[in-house]
Write a structure and sequence with these properties.
Helix content: 25-40%
CATH topology of the largest domain: Quinone Oxidoreductase, Chain A, domain 1
Number of strands: 18
Bound molecules: zinc ion
Strand content: 25-35%
Structural class: alpha/beta
Number of helices: 12
Radius of gyration: 21 Å
CATH class of the largest domain: Alpha Beta
Length: 353
């Protein structure tokens, strides 16, 4: 080891450079992990395109946040974790001290600590993360499968907060990686799932996940037509018991309100651009007794459930990641994701071409 590692460094939007930088060393309570799989995620692609106020605080900086790897060194005072262990880590960890943490709403913590830097050969896991959100995973699981625990955890959280009954009709709007995870989890709850999405590979995957009705929206330009189609698929056209929005656009949030039945629930999963608003018909909200549920992030227990679902392959991570690419092809891979190729890709930071 020459004490240098490969890293993708974010300098500015659309300016990411591949450099050799110093391998960090763990301080007290910290753990050094050799990253074996770092996944592509919409958040990182957005960061690349336009920066990110919360994730990027100084430049240049490493980025990437869904990962797993091998422990290579532990700092003083670290208990349980040892070199050679295969671990994965939820990249945002609560403080366990504030009002929200004590109120069992850790995802709303006032002092979430966020870790960024998975598109590099090594990463330091901060002390708090080691204590709360660093998990060992079983040998039979590939690194990329374990790395899916972070995004899947947010879907586990959303499904838990939504509350789905067996036999419910659940419409999921959006067929990105998280839309697909939400569909899979809803189907596992015994729901009749309707999917609105696009991308041939993704919709094929939705079918494999047990989604009953698939509406390919690339053929339907008008929102009203999409709504009509989705409602037609529900019993007597009355609308869906549950609608989950996983696009992150105000139009899609409003669309969800038009697909839900009276007395139904709408879960808003996709984060919209800051400052955007939606219109809700007060009469509908009031007389139809709609339940509108916002969801964000995950609790440590959601994260543990997520890794368990992946470990026993109740959710098969191999359906989400079909290809591993070297770090040097990161940007090209972001563009492939944007053109709806594949679902997620695994980046191997040890490889440069
Ligand atoms: Zn992510
Ligand atoms: Zn807290």
């Amino acid at each position: 080891m020459d004490n240098k590692m490969n890293a993708a460094l974010f300098y500015a939007p659309q300016d990411v450079r591949f450099e050799r930088i110093d391998i960090p060393r763990p301080s007290e309570g910290e753990v050094l992990v050799k990253v074996r799989a770092a996944l592509t995620c919409g958040t990182d692609i957005k960061t690349y395109q336009r920066g990110h106020p919360a994730m990027i605080k100084k430049v240049p900086t490493t980025f990437g946040h869904e990962f797993s790897g091998d422990i290579v060194e532990v700092g003083k005072g670290v208990k349980y974790f040892k070199p050679g262990m295969r671990v994965t880590c939820c990249n945002a960890v609560p403080c366990m001290k504030c009002f929200y943490c004590k109120n069992n709403q850790h995802n709303l913590c006032e002092d979430l600590l966020v870790l960024n830097g998975a598109y590099a050969e090594y990463i330091i896991i901060p002390e708090r993360m080691v204590r709360i959100n660093l998990l060992e995973f079983p040998r039979h699981l590939s690194y990329f499968e374990a790395a899916l625990s972070e995004p899947l955890g947010t879907a586990v959280h959303a499904i838990r907060l939504t509350g789905i009954e067996q036999g419910d009709t659940v419409t999921v709007i959006g067929s990105g990686p998280l839309g697909l995870m939400l569909m899979r989890l809803a189907a596992l709850q015994g729901a009749e799932v309707i999917a609105l999405g696009k991308g041939e590979e993704r919709l094929k995957q939705a079918e494999k996940f047990g989604v009953k009705h698939i509406i390919d929206i690339s053929d339907i330009s008008s929102l009203d037509k999409q709504i009509e189609k989705a409602r037609q698929l529900t019993s007597e056209g009355r609308g869906s018991d549950v609608v989950i929005e996983a696009v992150g656009k105000p139009e899609a949030w409003e669309e969800a309100l038009k697909i839900v039945r009276k007395g139904g629930k709408v879960t808003f999963f996709g984060g919209c651009k800051r400052g955007t608003t939606i219109t809700v018909d007060t009469e509908q909200l009031h007389y139809s007794e709609l339940k509108l549920i916002g969801v964000f992030h995950q609790r440590p227990d959601d994260y543990r459930r997520s890794l368990k679902l992946l470990s026993d392959r109740t959710v098969d991570g191999r359906d989400f990641v079909k290809e591993t690419v070297p770090l040097s092809r990161l940007i090209e891979t972001f563009n492939r994701v944007k053109s709806l190729e594949g679902i997620k890709f695994s980046i191997d930071p040890t490889k440069m071409e």
